[in-house]
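Weekend entry, working from home. Most of the wet-lab plans are on hold until the incubator is repaired, so I used the time to fold the two sequences that have been sitting in the queue since the last round of cloning. Logging both here for the record. First:
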Amino acid sequence: MTPRRCTTLVACLSFSAIAAAQSDDGLQKARMARVIERIVTGSDAESKAATEKLIREAIDPVVAAIGSTADRPIEEQLRLRAAIGRMHAALRIGLYRANLPPEDAALFDDFCRVYPDLTYELFDISFQVRMAALRRVPLEARTGAGLMMAARVDDEDEDVASEAVALALKLADPVVARALSRYLKDVIDTMKAGVYGPGDQDIAMTLALLAHQCVRVIGKSREKEHTPLLLEAISYFVGAGLWNAMPLDEALGAVGQLRDPRAAQLLANYAFSNRFVRMRRLSEEASATQTLGDVAMYGVILALDGDPAVFGFEPTTLADGFPAFPNDSAREAARLKFRQWLAEKGISPGDNPVPEPTAPGGARERRIVNPDNPANDQP
């Protein structure tokens, strides 16, 4: 499920790391680097041959050193098995850290120092172990916790990834926002490159839904530096037909939370959409409805430092960030006032296409559960 997989290489390198560590010989390291380069840049045949070469050079010495385990007590066999699994995790840990900027690398190191066993379990080869470890990551803001959650969003197992992004939404601090912005950019770039063809649409949809949740986390963090990326995500996933109105409305809401004037134009382009999103009951007799346009309008007002209350949103729902109207006449009055206000700001709403709904159960209706959606918000 990860945008760029290198599972075969990881499996090989878990042993090659040991072989390299056995000697400080620069020539050996240089030779190994050349082999790895052929794996990743050579032709298919060259890559396959180089992979086999790496396997033999890296694994054979380790296997020879271990020898037969048949005569070893079961306790010793289990220790060897655990050591091999730990080596595999150590390689994953090292590769993940190698791609972190210095500030996050330092936070990552701090987390590893405080929670060494938990770190290994988070990168374990077993998805059950990774899931259990993920649920023990402390929700500590501005620490390496956010980096660990982001690492597991980019997991081979969909359930682990979904759990990780749900936890990230609870944390939503600058660290996890930075980490998920890197993941989100990687997903967008990989999908734009056409890596996933017609036969890989389940993977593409899963990544699109994870990307949608990443946008929500980043928006909740209110870190304005990520605004351009979120705007790119909305344009791409809507244009590619991977987000329908439901993920789109939450993505627009997330962008609005950033309160960044740079988002005003894109939000304004959706501000007059009548696509129904959800309803919230106010009492036995009354309810408020929300359209995609309501979410976008609210976001524009926040982005341009306006006061949403003066536009006539339902006050009882607006108090908890649910922009809605009690009826269509109130909505139309608000839109008239909003259009005039936009003109004063020098913004002219464009015409962004709103994705058409698909039949229930269709691919574009699949969603990762929204953990903080109030029970009385009915889509």
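Second, folded right after the first finished:
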Amino acid sequence: MKGTSEINDLRKPRSIYSNNKSSAPSAQGSDHLDLYMLKEERERLEKEIKVLDKRRKDLQKHEQSRDKGWKTAFFGYQ
């Protein structure tokens, strides 16, 4: 059985979410459905951006605390 590090698709954001797209042409009068799907996709992407921003801020805080500890340990100042 493959581990998660051996499965390349898990690292690609497009493969995590299903797109629910069909190869069949859209029917007449389905504009409202298309708008709904686009709205849902936009909301999903906005939510993903918020999650990534929070992750980035957390990593920056971790990096700053690590650097502060490193300077204190080796140079005796903050």
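Plan for Monday: verify the second prediction. The two ends are 48 Å apart (CA to CA).
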